TrEMBL record:
The lineage of its organism: Bacteria, Bacillati, Actinomycetota, Actinomycetes, Micrococcales. This is Thymidine kinase. Gene3D superfamilies: 3.30.60.20, P-loop containing nucleotide triphosphate hydrolases. Its EC number is 2.7.1.21. Belongs to the thymidine kinase family. The keyword ATP-binding applies.
């Protein structure tokens, strides 16, 4: 039975790596697939992982219709057994519905990968629809970690070192600070997310590296 599976996790939890591995494993067994992504850090028409692997992908523009795209490939003789859909949080709810229809009416497996919530803890519309429609939501096994060592559950946006909770929902960026990067992201546990305490704020509150990680019960919260 074909399935719509949503592999979700925070940023940096290995989703794109898993997407590439799944494509490799299915292809190695003779299945044919199509790879999609949207706004990948490596640029248009790419699916890339921080481990260094990357592949060409179909860019999911706002007007892309998954049903029409698959029908086009299939009628030109290409075998389509499965779809790999990375950065699925950025897809529209209508596009997620097209993916569900491909599973139900064409028997195509759809493996979608993405973060669920934005830097304000609000669900992306695409992720919300995936959670509503997926046969399974699978949380990634590799846990990204907060600076305190706890499992990271939230994606924080950091601008010039300061965690922010207002702004546009979509701003492409990385968890690695780049020299020219204005916006970066940091994964945090819920407690530190709620206290708006990213690693830079924690360092200011307790400048000696010897005392990190520390217990926040005895640590003052820096002013917002
Ligand atoms: N130099 C490295 N050595 C080993 N693993 C790494 C290295 N750099 C990144 N990773 C792994 O890659 C993961 C991020 O992979 P990626 O697929 O890009 O994540 P996501 O798509 O979820 O943002 C990290 O959580 C880490 O496990
Ligand atoms: C939290 C959050 C993230 N984004 C962007 C930043 C990255 O480009 C992607 C996530 O990619 P990853 O492969 O999971 O690291 O999403 C955003 O636009 N808005 C946000 O709130």
């Amino acid at each position: 039975m074909a399935e719509l599976v949503f592999f979700s996790g925070t940023m940096d939890s290995g989703k794109s790596t898993l997407a590439l591995q799944m494509d490799h494993n299915h292809r190695a067994r003779g299945r044919g697939g199509l790879i999609f992504s949207k706004l990948d850090r490596a640029g248009e028409d790419m699916l890339s992982s921080r481990l260094g692997l990357a592949t060409r992908a179909h860019e999911v523009h706002d007007d892309l219709d998954f049903w029409d795209t698959v029908v086009e490939h299939a009628t030109s003789g290409q075998r389509v057994d499965y779809l790999i859909c990375d950065e699925a949080q950025f897809y529209s709810p209508e596009q997620i519905e097209q993916l569900a229809r491909l599973v139900d009416e064409m028997g195509i497996d759809v493996f979608a990968f993405g973060i669920t919530a934005d830097f304000r803890t609000q669900l992306f519309p695409g992720s919300r629809r995936l959670i509503e429609l997926a046969d399974r939501v699978q949380v990634l096994q590799v846990e990204a970690l907060c600076w305190c060592g706890k499992r990271a559950t939230h994606n924080a946006r950091v601008v010039d070192g300061v965690m922010v909770v207002e702004g546009e929902q979509v701003v492409v960026g990385d968890t690695q600070a780049g020299t020219e990067t204005l916006v970066e992201y940091e994964v945090l546990c819920r407690r530190h997310f709620m206290r708006r305490m990213n690693s830079a704020a924690a360092r200011v509150a307790s400048p000696s590296p010897d005392v990190l990680p520390f217990d926040l019960e005895i640590c003052p919260v820096p002013p917002a």
